[in-house]
Each structure stands twice: as C-alpha cells, then as structure tokens.
Write a structure and sequence with these properties.
Length: 329
C-alpha cells in the first residue's frame, strides 16, 4: 500500500485527504518511482481551489514535481533502470497523473535522470522553475550576454531560477520585488540590482539599473496596470513575457512605447516547452548542464512532511517564501 493525496471537492487546504492505495504496475511507457521529495507549485493551490486552467475530476490527484528512485519500468522503457535517481518534469495534466504520493507511475517522457551532485530534495525543487524560466528567456527570448532582464516576483522559485539562468548566460538580471525587505536576499541570490516597486519610481530605477540601455526582456507573472512602467523602461525591440496573472486586472501597455520601440508582448506557459519533445530535450540539456556545473542551484525555503501537506499548502498561500517549498517522504 502507498499513501496518496487526493481531494473530492474544491476549497481550502482541509479538503486534502491522505489515503492508502494499491499502485498498479507501470504501463508500457511509464516509470514507477518511489518518491523521496515533492516540490510544491502554485498551480496545485489553484487546482485545489477550482481556479486552474482545467476543472478537477474527483477524486483528484495533485502534484507536478517529485524526485525519487526508480522501482520499475514499463516494457517500452529502456532509458531508465531500477535504482536510478530521477526527477519528474511537469509535462502532463492533473487529470492524468500526480506526484503527491509515496509510489507513483509517470510517463517516461516526463522523467529525467538528474545530476549526481543534487540531493533528492534539490532535484524535486528544480525542474518546474528552471524549465519555466528557460523557455521564456532562452528558447523564445534568446537572451544574450550583457542584455538586461527585469524579473517580477523575483523572490519566487521561478524568479530565482530566472536570476540564475540570466547569470549563466552572462546577462544582467534586475530583480523586482514589492518592498526592500528582500533586497539583501535577492542580491545574494545573484541579482545585479533590485527595484522595490512599491517604494521606488520603477521607470527611473530601471533606467539607472540598466545603465540607460533599457530592459531587453521582461519576465512577469504579475501583470496588471503596473506593467505600464515596465513597458516604458524597455529597450528597442524588447520582449515582454507574461507567464502568470497574480494581478488579474488588464495589462496596461502604453501604445506609443509599443509602437516606437517595436515591443512584443507574449503570453507564455511552461507546457509550450514540456509538451514538445524537441523543446523539452533542449530544456533538459540546458538545465542539466546548469545543475551539473553548479551555475543553477535550487534554493529551498522550507520543508514539510507528507502528513503535513495541508500546512504546506497554507504556508505557500501566505506568499512569504523565498525559494521552493519541499515535502519530504
């Protein structure tokens, strides 16, 4: 028997239930993993609340990320062996699979053998955030050395991943955060500069931080009216990647800046990368190299046990973490 987290109705964290279930043998194209660590993601909170892009089918599973040891493989799987240390990359829907359990079956294409220098907890904290940031900055944004990238919600796990990826390619990451409370943390995490958007003039500060060049790429999970200040701060030909809607109000894009500087606004989501085999292969190679070299190093904020999964969700909803929340098994 294996513990599995599900929910039978949407709502607050108390709807999460832990039960003992029998786990079937893996299907021909699946890998069975004994989970040692789970990485939490905001999508799981939204799904539990009924606010995600897909509707739950009850009882619903949860979880996009995990790391553990291969227990068995399907008959069509040759790239993994029993005993391998592996991680799960989000490339499926919650209606298909979930990682909140002691023993899980995953599609082989969503599994990756991670570098030996990573602990299982670090591995569980890596793939959602690094692949999300990689897709916008590298695959689509073609971020280059010496370019300026403005990163909103920079203390989130994806924000910190974007800082590291920018540094990995020699670009200049400028962290945006609401207040100066996390300035020192963000600087120590690799930010070249930090702008406190609720305390400072965003346009003036980004002009200063970019050395007057402007921002070549904006990486933004927030949106809303405040986005206008970022558009005004962009360099000619700049690209604005919107990958979330923490502020659900419409984005304000000043039309004269968009026209005169030939700016691009693009909606972006992780699954553009993870559902495309060629793009996913490039992402795996880039992130694996960064993790192996130490240029990418996941920051873990806090750990919970599986029995405390509701408390872990509550903690994420406080929006105070810097880095990844991990559940250990």
């Amino acid at each position: 028997m294996s513990k599995l987290v599900t929910f039978k109705q949407t709502g607050e964290s108390e709807v999460l239930e832990i039960s003992d279930v029998m786990v079937s043998a893996p299907e021909p194209d699946e890998v069975q993993i004994r989970v040692h660590a789970i990485g939490l993601n905001r999508a799981e909170i939204m799904y539990r609340r009924g606010e995600y892009v897909i509707e739950p089918t009850f009882p619903s599973r949860l979880g996009y990320e995990a790391a553990g040891i291969v227990e068995a493989t399907g008959i069509n799987v040759s790239e993994f062996q029993v005993g391998d240390s592996v991680s799960v990359i989000p490339s499926f829907m919650f209606t298909e699979y979930g990682t909140y359990g002691e023993m899980i079956n995953m599609p082989a294409r969503a599994v990756v053998r991670h570098p030996d220098n990573l602990s299982l907890e670090e591995a569980a904290a890596s793939w959602m955030m690094y692949v999300t940031a990689y897709g916008a900055l590298i695959e689509y944004g073609n971020l280059k050395a010496d370019q300026n990238v403005a990163i909103r919600a920079a203390s989130s796990s994806v924000g910190l991943a974007a800082i590291q990826i920018a540094n990995m390619v020699g670009a200049r990451p400028i962290a945006l955060t609401r207040t100066s409370e996390k300035k020192d943390i963000l600087k120590s995490a690799g930010a070249a500069d930090v702008v406190a958007t609720a305390e400072q003039d965003i346009v003036a500060e980004l002009h200063r931080a970019s050395g007057g060049e402007g921002i070549h790429i904006v990486f933004d999970p927030v949106g809303g009216p405040e986005a206008a200040s970022l558009f005004r701060s962009m360099a000619s030909g700049g690209a604005y990647f919107q990958y979330g809607a923490l502020d659900p109000r419409d984005i304000n894009a000043p039309v004269m800046d968009v026209l005169s500087k030939h700016l691009t606004l693009r909606g972006y989501e992780l699954f553009e990368i993870t559902m495309d085999d060629e793009k996913l292969a490039r992402a795996k190679a880039f992130v694996s190299e960064g993790l192996r070299s130490g240029q990418l190093k996941p920051l873990i904020d806090k750990r919970f046990t599986l029995d405390d999964i509701a408390a872990a969700h509550d903690y994420m909803e406080l929006n105070g973490q810097t880095g990844k929340i991990i559940v250990t098994l």
